[in-house]
Design a protein that fits this description.
This protein has about 160 residues and is an alpha+beta fold. The protein contains 4 helices and 5 strands. A hairpin with a 3-residue loop joins strand 2 and strand 3.
Length: about 160
Amino acid sequence: MNRDALTAQLLDPHSGTDLNRYGFELPARVEFVSQARKLARDQLRYWGIHGDLHDTALLVISELVTNAVVHTGGSLVACELLNGEPQLRITVQDQGSTTTGPRVCRNAEEGIAAEEERGRGLLLVEAVSSAWGAHDCEHGTGRIVWAELSRETGWAC
């Protein structure tokens, strides 16, 4: 497990066991989103997570990492997976440097026409997650965005 600057903040060494936690950090560049999916895919398979939950987790990771890369100016993005009961929790942290956090655009009036596509990733995360949210980091300028996927079905709906 890679425990660098951002992942050290995500992973709490005093709770649970590292067998159910996996974290990594990557450069905050679009070309590394596929690497985030690959790392997560390998870990999910190692844990024996397949089917809808596996596919949904990869979708959520892709959307959250992409959101962190596109909407912040940091150089790193960290991702943590927590294999728990009754859900799988996905957490993505960026280094911040912008004044706005993630937000869901529910209609075209909320966004600029040229940016109409933006915000749909978080709508997708909201649709497939049993819960999700975002908050500022305790230390620094970054944001943490998390999503929980039910182990029952892998889909919230």
